[in-house]
Amino acid sequence: MTIGKGPARFAGAALMALVLAGCDGGESVERGNLNYENFTAKQIFERGEYDLERDKPKLAAQSFAEVERLYPYSAFAKRAVIMQAFAYHRDRNYAESRAAAQRYIDFYPADEDAAYAQYLLALSYYDQIDEIGRDQKLTFEALQALREVIERYPESQYANAARLKFDLAYDHLASKEMEIGRYYLKRDNFSAAASRFRIVVEDFQTTSHTPEALYRLVESYLSLGFVDEARTAGAILGHNFRGTEWYQDAYALLTGKGYTLEAAGDGWLRGIYRQTVLGRWL
Question: Which UniProt keywords apply (predicted)?
Answer without folding.
Answer: Cell outer membrane, Lipoprotein, Membrane, Palmitate, Signal
